[in-house]
Amino acid sequence: MVGKVVNILAIESSCDDTSAAVIQNEKILSNYIANQEIHSKFGGVVPELASRAHQQNIVPVVEEALKKAAMTKEELDAIAFTIGPGLLGSLIVGASYAKGLAMSLDIPMIGVNHMKGHIMAHFIDQDKPKPSFPFICLTVSGGHTQLVHVKSYSNMEVIGSTIDDAAGEAFDKAAKIMGLPYPGGPLIDKYGKDGDIEKYEFPISSLQGYDFSFSGLKTSILYFLQKEMKKNPDFIKENMSDICASYQHTIIKTLFKKLIKASKDLGIKDIAIAGGVSANSYLRSELERVGENRGWNTFIPEFQYCTDNAGMIAIAGYHQFLAGEFTSYDAAPQARLPL
């Protein structure tokens, strides 16, 4: 298959963003995303509303992706789609569309693990270095926090994960407590830029091994704010930047505690981050700072490939295509799917 041009349409619908991308070998030709603004009024993603919005968005999103790529459906060699993990109703919309299109074109389907897609975003053809195998990837998002030992395109081992809340949840739940709109993570990042990271002290999990825990931190900030608000009802408003900076610092410090341990234990210097929280500016700057101090080769995805997007599903699908890893037409998406 050396020299062969492979065109793949990819669909991502695991949560509340409907996305379609077209990839030619490792080069992304288009990566179109339709966001669902409706969830902001509910303070979080409502699964039923998400699946309905996917049904409305899927056809125009795919058409726009093909249009931007200047490609027809007949030129496609395969359809890649997110098979899990994610919200089952949302996954079903993307999988059903992928199945119908693949069958009508008589081309193969490629079911991609959503978390694998985040990691594989580092291999999209861009003007930047790519990690070498083996490497460690800290994958942090709203629903997952994982340390992954990436041995090859197809061999990835989760060596650590959260036992309760994910890092993204820790951000969003704290933001909700502080009265910030959903999604709150980017706002904590924004306010934290002007704050003192050492102004307030929050607990760091003492779990052994590589696993994470953020539920204690979430409880800690709740009790802390309740206590301070009794003394001063305007405490949050008057100290927003310092609260955000200190809380964010604790989350990032927790992540790096495990990342540093894994790097030392495994003797691996190629370190990457991925997932929605990898768009956090403090996490990105800390990776560069810590990496420089420890002699790491660090890899940070472009912003457009951090949050849920079909581009990452496309690159994972391409490498599965090369390996002949196809999915049967009767395969069902799974809300829980290990890497």
Q: Characteristics of this structure?
A:
alpha/beta, Nucleotidyltransferase, domain 5, 2 domains, five-stranded mixed β-sheet, 10 strands, globular
Task: Give your account of this protein's structure.
The chain is of the alpha/beta class. The chain has two domains: 7-120 and 306-322, ATPase, nucleotide binding domain (Nucleotidyltransferase, domain 5); 129-301, Nucleotidyltransferase, domain 5 (2-Layer Sandwich), CATH 3.30.420. 42% of the residues lie in helices and 17% in strands. The protein contains nine helices and ten strands. It has helices at 47-68, 88-105, 114-120, 167-177, 185-192, 215-231, 235-266, 281-294, 310-322, and strands at 7-12, 18-24, 27-34, 78-84, 109-113, 135-140, 145-150, 156-161, 270-274, 297-299. The strands form two sheets. A five-stranded mixed β-sheet has the order 3-2-1-4-5, with helices on both faces. Strands 8-7-6-9-10 form a five-stranded mixed β-sheet, with helices on both faces. Helix 5 packs across helix 7 (235-266) and helix 6 (215-231) packs antiparallel against helix 7 (235-266). The two termini are 27 Å apart.
Spans of at least 5 consecutive residues with low confidence: none
- Residue-averaged pLDDT, rounded? 94
Enter the CATH topology name of the largest domain: Nucleotidyltransferase, domain 5
Shape: globular
Q: Tell me the number of structural domains.
A: 2
The number of strands is: 10
* Gross CATH architecture of the largest domain: 2-Layer Sandwich
Order of helices and strands: EEEHEHEHEEEHHHHEHEH
Proportion in helices: 40-55%
